[in-house]
Amino acid sequence: MHMGDALISATVGGTFWAVSGASLAGASRRLRREGDESRVPLMGVLGAFVFAVQMVNFAIPGTGSSGHLVGALMLAALLGPPAALLVMGSVLLVQALFFADGGLLAFGCNLFNMGILPIFVAFPLLYAPLARRGRPGLGALLAAGVGMELGALAVSLETVASGLTGLSFRAFLLALLPIHLPIGLVEGVATALVLRFVARARPGLLVPRPEPIGRRVLGTILGAAVLVAGLLSWIASRQPDGLAWATARVAPALGAAPGAALHRLAAGIQQRTAFLPDYALPGPDVNLLRQRSGTSLAGLLGGAVTLLLVATVGWLLARRRASPPEA
Amino acid sequence: MASLADALLDLREMDRLARLDTPIHRLEPRAKVLATALFLAVLASFGPREVSSLLPLALFPVALAALGGIPFALVVRKVALGLPFILVLGAFLPWLERMPALQVGPLVLSAGWLAYGSLLARGILAMATATVLVAATGFGEMCAALDRLGAPRAFSQQLLFLHRYLFLVGEEAERARQARALRAAGRPLSAREFGPFAGHLLIRSWERAERVHLALCARGFEGTLPKRVQGRFRRREWTFLLGWATFFILCRWRPLPVLLGSLLPGGAP
Question: Does the model's ipTM exceed the 0.95 cut?
Answer without folding.
Answer: no
